[in-house]
């Protein structure tokens, strides 16, 4: 056992515990390595199996020898069954699993050492080179130039991940926040991009690096709507054993949904904070304890935006349909007529005329925005832009005079 004490790698599971510390904590009999599909929708495990399976197997065999284990087993998601033969060739038993919840009951037993497959890859790489800088397979996605799956060294900052691997933010946009750790990961604001990508810095915020997914969101993302979607997804992951988890996460979703629909009530923010604290303290598993992390960290960084949605019925990003109206930008409209297919007949105009949306008839379905090839259909919140009162000739409208240019378009009203 002494030989393993010097190995400086961390487990790639939920807690990121030093592996050597775990190995020496008790006598282990068996090793089970998890090669399961990530529930957050990223393809990290598929990437590992495709590019580093032999190295991961080497790490499993090395650990078996060093800890003198009786057997080793690979637990594969059913859709990775095609890789089972490679394990069998090496004499490693394989089992197929449907879901993580069923896996936990079957695998986590006394004397069974359970590791993420990526930890075995890190062990192999460390044994090959003691100066090896640990890497993590990470899905980087969102409003960036080159989304993809990358092998990222621990220690670099979140900003370096965006610029070096994602090749920067999508043109014309700026970073509003980053979600690190999949559906239950923490939120980091634009002023926190210097946060280092390490277990010590990310885990303290509740991020689960087992789901190594970094998502970049720009300023046109509504943080309230985004957390609402996260809470709905997380509510579907609960096993239902804990009342706090089963009911609490869904209640968070309902409160947030109301906030995006103009139904928020005084005190909702306090109620959400109380539920988040209760989930962290009173649930039985790591899923329950971390399910509200996206919301709790988001409220700390964007508290004012939550208050505006609930108290003032304002959505700064103009994403929440209840708080916006649609209009056609007279400076962009080319009079093509594509939006005249409006099912509510809320758009007036004609060939070569600037079109106008009647907000009293508009149902905010957004179909006009989808069909407009010139991106002339836009949104406004509390401040209505200067718009023509009647359809007028394309290029005739002047915002400064709040009307048509003199002598143009008067004879072509409809």
From TrEMBL:
SUPFAM superfamilies: 4Fe-4S ferredoxins (SSF54862), Nqo1 middle domain-like (SSF142984), Nqo1C-terminal domain-like (SSF140490)
Domain of life assignment: Bacteria
Listed transmembrane segments: none
Domain 4Fe-4S ferredoxin-type: 324-352, 353-382
Keyword Flavoprotein part of the UniProt annotation: no
Disordered, as annotated region: 388-414
Name of this protein: 4Fe-4S binding protein
GO molecular function, one term: 4 iron, 4 sulfur cluster binding
InterPro entries, sorted: 4Fe4S_Fe-S-bd (IPR017896), De-COase2_CS (IPR022657), Nuop51_4Fe4S-bd (IPR019575), Nuop51_4Fe4S-bd_sf (IPR037207)
Keyword Iron set for record: yes
Keywords: Iron, Iron-sulfur, Metal-binding
